[in-house]
């Protein structure tokens, strides 16, 4: 079976190296298959940027989709262009053309999850998307396995390499968000427009894919409460550290009865905890099932080789099952569940506000007191730090968002219990 | 396909509940299969202890192996008796009789790994053993998956729930080994004879299974350097804690060129690390591949439900592939590798010795100085604590074992870097 690759970016070239250039043990697996069928190889690469250096190792570059869609010899398409509309159209057309699809595109999968799965089933092909969540961490496959026996009721994790790099670096250096973002951008760990990462859209998409699978109901990106990390300052890192905590960017969803609760927000973990010690581009994902209890999966959430590894794992999976036409049971995504925000989350809250004057201090303390008992208050130069008693996330978030209208320089985060 | 269960102990009853009593989502999977074949069920249970309360839910109890071996309706046998000789014989006979086998028995698998895999292949059946390592952690399957693409070069982890419970409890309470072992025994977390757990045989067997698979060469239990945790005292916990470390019981193997290095020993990890925060009966297993980098898997290393989950996962796997007779590529275990002890491991060492007199202090310090520079020495009542510069594990271990002949009250551990 021939393979087409859409997009020859970082991950695309990594996949090409594994499949066509025999890096890793991949070729060994194929040698074993040769006796049964022709050895699979990437025969066409769709890359619209013809100015890009593609090396002399790349086979046939094509620039028009029809050269892939209408090529009967291509049975599997690896979609790694990124972006939204064009990749979505291509995946759809490939499935319709009876071609298996492997993608790493979390935006497309989270947005069109049910439609694409249905399309794959209708056309008797397989859609795989292991690399769309957690980079090289084998979470999609593992979640499916555990779901054969378990009812999964909770998913949480550090799901974005860029923001985890930024927060780890800020913690290590005691640095501010702005300068650390600039550093991350300069070394290619953050994009020129970092919004999707630092405002939580990327985490939210990954959380929506995992939660939809686990709870068997479409949890849309829009259903997820999101708060970014752009307000974290060196002063927060210092105070949080002195309290024995570390700030992490957490995606978290819980299924209780027929209700799904989801959140993407900065959360403080005890220094001595597993979450606090997941650093740099590493990710961790925790799933909880009624039989297995909690399982956690840790690995590289980004990077060429690790992500290519996940993509090629999907390719091998498809090549292996194609022969028998023994396709896995399709995911069920039609359970009726209520998506009701962050009601279930609660904890102590940390808040830092920059003060213009004495009056502003009163404003902050009064606002906090309307929702929670203050446990600790530290006033230091022109800043106030508050730690509250345990309260509902909803209540604190609402109060803090309102407070921001009059006290703009503010950061707050729940302390994980 | 009918299933027989060997042994109705803790895990056995957990498996019975999942398969026959429809606990969890397992029955849902079976409903889906019913259209294609008869729904699988445990029809016979071999349990030689007839005084045991088996409940009125258990189907047919049999006491003689032939009732299972000669029953043509039984296609799959779940071997959960524990122990060595009888379970080994039963697994062998079942494979020879053309029955698939699922087991959790790490002793049998690590001792007869190659023989049993060969026997399965020769008889056209499948042998699965996910629950033999890491309880509910899906490590065997994940390792096999990653090996399709990666050369795995390192495995390390906290692989024993009993000793991790004991060390976690000692750390939490500042308690001694003896009293904590007694506590663990009283609540069923340690066996009456705890030797296999606290002297490292259990970890060594699990490490030998994972290492044999990963390095494609039989690593025998006997090839693994082992040192127990029985010498840890409350005084060590206190000193190690004040230094910012936590003691953990680590199994670790590395493949470098054609050499395999293995060790099972107490190791000190920084308080702020992932390993230090794996507590109680939880286990963690790290594997490193040349493409994927490091992956870590965390979950319950023991317990009825989690282990039964892993066993039933194997059962589902076999039921799924049996129809197509599309058996996975057999493991290769015949690479020629040198098993050369602990030569590759190095680090600073912590040592505590109880002193009878001033002369003994000189003995200890002189002995340490023969192999390493002393970095820190604390003498406190009748104890000395030493932290060394970085040295080879072999050198320190040899020195310390010799020192124990004259200074019997001694504990030492490498500081993980």
From TrEMBL, chains A, B:
InterPro entries tied to this protein: Asp/hSer_DH_NAD-bd, HDH_cat, HDH_CS, NAD(P)-bd_dom_sf
Enzyme Commission number, as recorded: 1.1.1.3
Catalytic activity: L-homoserine + NADP(+) = L-aspartate 4-semialdehyde + NADPH + H(+)
Domain of life of the native organism: Bacteria
Annotated ranges, domain Aspartate/homoserine dehydrogenase NAD-binding: 7-130
GO BP annotations listed: methionine biosynthetic process; threonine biosynthetic process
Domain Homoserine dehydrogenase catalytic: 138-316
Gene Ontology MF: a single term: homoserine dehydrogenase activity
Alphabetical UniProt keywords: Amino-acid biosynthesis, Methionine biosynthesis, NADP, Oxidoreductase, Sodium, Threonine biosynthesis
Pathway assigned to this chain's UniProt record: Amino-acid biosynthesis; L-methionine biosynthesis via de novo pathway; L-homoserine from L-aspartate: step 3/3; Amino-acid biosynthesis; L-threonine biosynthesis; L-threonine from L-aspartate: step 3/5
PROSITE patterns reported in the protein's UniProt record: HOMOSER_DHGENASE (PS01042)
Xref: NCBIfam families: PRK06349.1
Homology family: Belongs to the homoserine dehydrogenase family.
Protein name: Homoserine dehydrogenase
Source organism of the structure: Acetobacterium woodii (strain ATCC 29683 / DSM 1030 / JCM 2381 / KCTC 1655 / WB1)
Lineage: Bacteria, Bacillati, Bacillota, Clostridia, Eubacteriales
């Amino acid at each position: 079976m021939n393979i087409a690759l859409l997009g020859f970016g970082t991950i695309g070239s990594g996949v090409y190296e594994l499949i066509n250039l025999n890096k890793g043990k991949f070729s060994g697996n194929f040698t074993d298959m040769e006796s049964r069928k022709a050895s699979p190889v990437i025969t066409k690469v769709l890359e619209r940027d013809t100015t890009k250096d593609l090396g002399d190792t790349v086979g046939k570059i094509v620039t028009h989709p029809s050269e892939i869609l209408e090529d009967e010899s291509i049975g599997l398409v690896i979609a790694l262009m990124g972006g939204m509309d064009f990749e979505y159209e291509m995946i759809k057309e490939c499935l319709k053309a009876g071609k298996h699809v492997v993608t790493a595109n979390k935006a497309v999968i989270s947005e069109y999850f049910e439609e694409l799965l249905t399309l794959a089933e209708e056309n008797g092909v397989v859609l795989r998307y292991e690399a769309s969540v957690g980079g090289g961490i084998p979470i999609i496959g593992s979640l499916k396995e555990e779901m054969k026996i378990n009812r999964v009721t909770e998913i949480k994790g550090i799901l974005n390499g860029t923001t985890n790099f930024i927060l780890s670096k800020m913690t290590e250096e005691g640095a501010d968000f702005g300068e650390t973002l600039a550093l991350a951008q300069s070394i290619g760990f953050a994009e020129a427009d970092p919004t999707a990462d630092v405002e939580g859209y990327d985490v939210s998409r990954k959380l929506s894919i995992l939660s939809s699978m686990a709870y068997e109901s479409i949890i849309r990106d829009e259903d997820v409460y999101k708060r970014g990390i752009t307000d974290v300052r060196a002063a927060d890192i210092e105070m949080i550290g002195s309290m024995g905590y570390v700030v992490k960017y957490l995606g978290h969803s819980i299924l209780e009865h027929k209700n799904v609760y989801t959140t993407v927000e900065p959360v403080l973990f005890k220094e001595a905890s597993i979450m606090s010690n997941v650093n740099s581009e590493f990710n961790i994902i925790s799933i909880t099932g009624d039989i297995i209890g909690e399982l956690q999966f840790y690995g590289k959430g980004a990077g060429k080789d690790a992500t290519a590894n996940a993509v090629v794992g999907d390719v091998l999976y498809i090549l292996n099952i194609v022969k028998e036409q023994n396709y896995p049971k399709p995911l069920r995504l039609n359970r009726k569940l209520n998506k009701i925000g962050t009601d279930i989350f609660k904890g102590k809250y940390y808040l830092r506000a920059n003060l213009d004057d004495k009056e502003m201090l009163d404003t902050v303390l009064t606002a906090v007191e309307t929702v929670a008992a203050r446990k600790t208050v530290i006033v230091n130069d022109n800043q106030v730090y508050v730690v509250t008693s345990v309260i509902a996330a909803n209540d604190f978030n609402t109060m803090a968002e309102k407070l921001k209208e009059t006290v703009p320089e503010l950061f707050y985060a729940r302390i994980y219990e």
